[in-house]
Design goal:
This protein has two helices and no strands. The chain has one domain (about 1-95). Helix 1 packs across helix 2. It has helices at about 1-65, 75-95. With about 100 residues, it is mainly α.
Length: about 100
C-alpha cells in the first residue's frame, strides 16, 4: 500500500508541476498577444504617417515645379490639367 501512496504522490506532484507550467505558459502567451497587438497598432500608425509624408512630399514636388524648377514639370502640368477638368465639370453641373 505504501508504494501505491508513493505513486499517487508522485502523480500529484507531476500534475501540480504541469499545471504550474501551464499557468506560466498562459501568462506568457497573454503577454505576447498584447505585444503583438501593440506592434500591429504601431504598424498601422506608421503606415498612416508614411502616407501623410508621401502626400506632403508630392505637394512639395508640385509646388517646386510651379515655382519654375525643371524637375517634375510634367507632373505639375498634369495636376493643373486635372484641376481644370474638375473645375469645368463643376461649372457644367452648376449651369444645368
Amino acid at each position: 500500500m505504501s508504494s501505491t501512496l508513493k505513486i499517487v504522490d508522485s502523480l500529484e506532484n507531476s500534475l501540480r508541476k504541469m499545471l504550474h507550467k501551464l499557468e506560466v505558459l498562459e501568462q506568457k502567451n497573454y503577454k505576447l498577444n498584447q505585444e503583438l497587438d501593440n506592434s500591429k497598432e504601431q504598424t498601422v500608425r506608421l503606415h498612416e504617417e508614411i502616407s501623410q509624408w508621401e502626400e506632403k512630399f508630392n505637394a512639395l514636388k508640385i509646388a517646386n515645379s510651379m515655382l519654375g524648377s525643371d524637375n517634375n514639370k510634367k507632373e505639375a502640368k498634369l495636376k493643373i490639367n486635372t484641376l481644370i477638368r474638375q473645375i469645368d465639370h463643376c461649372i457644367t453641373q452648376l449651369a444645368e
